[in-house]
């Protein structure tokens, strides 16, 4: 496939929605989409974390335990950054303990 065609397609997919948002201006977003968009960050986070859970060197149990602790922190605080912080600290501490 022509490389310029691929790059042009990536530009359209990446900047098209942004340009549409700028051109629409202050158009009100329907309540359904507001509710839907609230879950995008946590869904992206889960999609990034889940494939890494098995890990290397047989540390799947440590990673799974840290992920559960992080999920509880996110559930209790409703803050993704706190969950990431708690999960990383739990992972490092559990890794030292094992």
Task: Write structural notes for this entry.
The chain is mostly helical and 98 residues long. The chain folds into two domains: 1-37, no CATH class; 39-98, no CATH class. It is built from five helices and no strands. It has helices at 3-24, 31-38, 40-49, 60-77, 80-97. The radius of gyration is 19 Å and the shape is flat. The model has no long low-confidence stretch (mean pLDDT 88).
Notable characteristics:
98 residues; mainly alpha; 5 helices; 78% helix; flat
Give me a quick take on this structure.
The chain is an all-alpha fold.
Topology:
Layout: H1 3-24, H2 31-38, H3 40-49, H4 60-77, H5 80-97
Helix pairs in contact: 4-5
Which range does the strand content fall in? under 5%
Oligomerization state? single chain
Topology as a string of helices (H) and strands (E): HHHHH
Number of helices: 5
Number of strands: 0
Q: Level of helix content?
A: over 70%
What is the residue-averaged pLDDT?
88
Number of domains: 2
Kindly provide the radius of gyration, computed on alpha-carbon positions and rounded to a whole number of angstroms.
Answer: 19 Å
Structural class: mainly alpha
Shape: flat
Stretches where pLDDT falls below 50 for ≥5 residues? none
N- and C-termini, Cα separation: 50 Å
The profile of the biggest β sheet is:
none
